[in-house]
Amino acid sequence: MKATVVAGLNRGARGVGLALGLPVLLFTAWWVFSADSTSIFLPPLSRIVEAFGQVWFSEVFVRDVLPSLRRLAAGYAAALLVGVGVGYLVGRWSVVRDLTSPILAYFRVLPAPVLIPVLLVAVGIGDATKLIVIAVGAVWPILLNTADGVRAVDEVQLDTAAAYRLRAWTRHGLILRAATPQVFAGARQALGISLIVMVVSEMLMSTDGLGFTVIRFQRTFAIPEMWSGVLLLGLLGFGLAKVFETIERRALRWHRGATGREESW
């Protein structure tokens, strides 16, 4: 028992070291090589860190960061619901797939920011426009991965469920559960896209939020503050990815056990 605990701690320490080793090294190199910088556009990292504390550990966090997180969460949640629902229909029934294939092929390659001018005219500059842009940008990886996962479900499982005369909703649940690994793969991609689209939408059509604040610092030549916003966005993306990874690890524990890959995470 003690050996198992020690081995687990060693694996955890090794994982943390591998995850943080390169970022710490790059951060240290940036600090050292920028220490004597006199460029207004590339200030020393020490000034950026100082500006980070002054800007983001203040009322700016409540005024600009929290609204961005709310928009990100709402748009991402909408993309999840639509992506999983439509993806299941597309993957489960060939008729739906054949009918929607041309439309999906068109809209999946359409960049979400292109919709911003249209939505500004149709919806206005409020949060609804930003939420639609985030959802439209994030929905495609979820939808396509869900459809592929549903189509790849083993026919033996479907035949077994039919032989046992399981209820329709039970069979749908089994199919969706079998497709969960690919659903999570799409959701992981969509999370990064949601963050990018959120920032772009706030830069173009907002009066608050992280994207708006970064572009405001750039326009007023508050360069250290602008760089501090870039750092915050990177930290936010890293933190969200780690939270998602933890949720995915727990949700797919059954899948790793079934494939014999319990120790691969």
From TrEMBL:
Localisation: Cell membrane
The way it spans or sits in the membrane comes to:
Multi-pass membrane protein
Keywords for this entry? Cell membrane, Membrane, Transmembrane, Transmembrane helix, Transport
Q: Which InterPro entries match?
A: MetI-like, MetI-like_sf
Matches recorded under Pfam families: BPD_transp_1
Task: State the protein's name.
Answer: Nitrate ABC transporter permease
Q: Which residues, if any, are the signal sequence?
A: none
Gene name? ssuC_5
The ABC transmembrane type-1 domain covers 83-243
Work out whether the entry's keyword set contains Cell membrane.
yes
TM region positions: 12-33, 73-91, 103-125, 131-153, 226-244
